[in-house]
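Give me C-alpha cells for this 222-residue protein.
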Amino acid sequence: MLAAPARPLSLVLRECTAAAHGDVEKSPFLSRLVSGALNRAAVADYAAQLWFVYSALEVAVREHSADPRLAVVADPRLERVGALERDLADLIGPQWRSCILPGPGAAAYVDRLAGLAEVGDVTGLIAHHYVRYLGDLSGGQLLARVLRERYRVGAAGLHFYDFREAGDPGICRAEYRRQLDSLALGEVDVSWLASSANEAFALNRGVCRDLAERHCTLSDRI
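Here you go.
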C-alpha cells in the first residue's frame, strides 16, 4: 500500500466537505425540524427515509466487509437499521412497513449505494459510511435532544441516536477518526474519497428536499 497522506485523512475530509455539510444542515427541512416548527409525522417520515438509506448502506458494507480498508471503519455496533425499525414501530405503529415509501431522493441514494456495492467501490463506500455514521455520532446527538424536547419523542422512538452499545459518542467519534486516519491511501484514492463524500452530502440534500416538499410550506422552501 502507498504511504498515508501527510495530513490526517479525517481532517482532509472535514475540510473538503465543509461547504456541502453546511448546505445539508441549512436545508429547509432540517432547519424547520430543528426549530420545532414541524410535527411528529415529519419526524416519522424522516426516520422512514433514513431506514431505506441505511438498509442499502449496511447491506453494501457487509457485502464488502472482508476488505481490510472497509473493515477499519465498519464497526457492526454502529449499524442503525435495527434501531430505526424500533423507532418506526413507536412513531408509526407495528404496521409501519406497509405505511412507508422511499421518496425520489432516498430512492436515488439507495440506487447509488447498490451501484457502489455492485462494482466493489470500497473507497466510495467508506466515504458514504463516514458521512452518515460520523454525522449520527455528532450532529445526530443534538437532533435527538430536539426531538425529545420539542416533539416529545420518547426513548422508544430515539433508538437511532443511541450508541450506548458502541460506547460514548464522543469517544466513538475520536476512534472513528483515528481508524480513518490509519488508512494508507494513495493520492487518487484520497481524491475519490473526497469526491464520494461530497456526493453523499448531495444525496442527503436530495432526501431533505423531498421531505421539505412534503412537510414544509412553499415559503419555507424558498
